[in-house]
Amino acid sequence: MPTTTLSPRGTTARSTTIALKLLMAVTGLVFVGYLLLHMYGNLKALWGEEAFNTYAEHLRTFGEPMLPYGGLLWIVRVVLIVSLVGHAYAAYTLWSRAGAARRTKYAAVKSAATSQWMRWGGTFLLLFVVWHLLHFTIVKISPNADKQGPDVTANPFQLVVASFEVWWMVLIYVAAMVALFMHLLHGVYSAQQTLGWTGTPKARARARTAGLVIALVVVVGFLIPPLSIAFDLIN
Amino acid sequence: MSGLMNLTLKIWRQSGPDDKGRLVTYRVSDISPDMSFLEMLDVLNEELNAKGEEPIAFDSDCREGICGMCGLMISGHAHGPERTTTCQLHMRSFKDGETITVEPWRAEAFPIVRDLVVDRGSFDRIIQSGGFISANTGSAPDAHATPVPKDNADRAFMAAECIGCGACVAACPNASAMLFMGAKVTHLGELPQGQPERDARVVSMVNQHDHEGFGGCTNVGACSQACPKGIPQDVISQLNMDLRTALQHGR
Hints:
A: 3 helical TM bundles of succinate and fumarate reductases; 71% helix; B: alpha+beta; Ubiquitin-like (UB roll); 2 domains; 8 helices; 13% strand; 4 iron, 4 sulfur cluster binding (chain B)
């Protein structure tokens, strides 16, 4: 090839920014699948304490005796942790590359809102996930002054109800859902584009619709239980 | 004559690659709405010449929208508010009394040579890294020697419309050249002559793209909106697909 004067840094498909994008797309789709399952589980709260807590316990006994107690849950957790590391690594690497690709900003161009939502919204979601895990999984914190003690924190349904009777807690979760909506709206479309599934205008329109539908379903589904609690429809 | 325009221009002046550069305000009067944007700059340059000042450097060549040489960021839009090249943008797209900001393409991979002129050699090096295609040379082959389905030929022609002006990079929030590269990869990938080197080509071009310092794609689509040839986003999808296929083939 007449390219002897060139010295491209990478030489493999794996060393490209598109490979990073593929990592982001695949891990993103793992999250979409998980979000749909998680949302379905949350909706059990509408059927009351027993339905919700039985579902939570069933998640741990699922697959027994082939799997140990909590086995499936740990498989899912490992997949999610690996996906989170991959997703965040790809995102922050590409973000810093993008910053380095244009050091002098335009005087007359406003920054693209979509990119800001993905990056800052994504960072907010990362912080939210940390808080969410501390809140309901790792530490089990009840922010409700009237409802404290192991009766509340060891009972998944009671902890959820106690938490969303606190107004600022509802606010944090609603803000996270707004960020999640914007993230999914672009992210689901973007993942399909990155995977090369949008080769025609029709396929691209379909991918955008998929983004909107998934974002709406997930966010509305997630908002129903906390808002029902906040407005005293569940107690 | 009626409808002549008076405009305020804020133009980026930079005496060389190492100069810091700044926006300088100029006023032009009696501009015809039928002038092209570059003709308006020609008028300003003649005035500057007459005053003994350094004229504003900008790129242009064919001035009929097909060579890809011109390209300015006009009030935040690559090639201005219309979907066309800067040379085919007419002053009727602006209002009398308007203030217009004119900047060069901004990307680390497009270093500024002077004023509004940038070095787009990185595009040439991406093309170069794509290498050759296997086509017999010598006497012209019969027209029906290598059949190409109509749909593939149409898509190849659509992608081949890319004139390499760099508006996609200029408009992209990440200064990514994926639309340009997608057009080139789709153009050759749709044709039978481009098949044997298909995997090697995409891997080499994308690596060169990254090495030149362009950013990654976030699929926001600003590139297609800025493209004077209306190259759609689906060429980037094709590029991603080709890279993924090369990855699966162990490249």
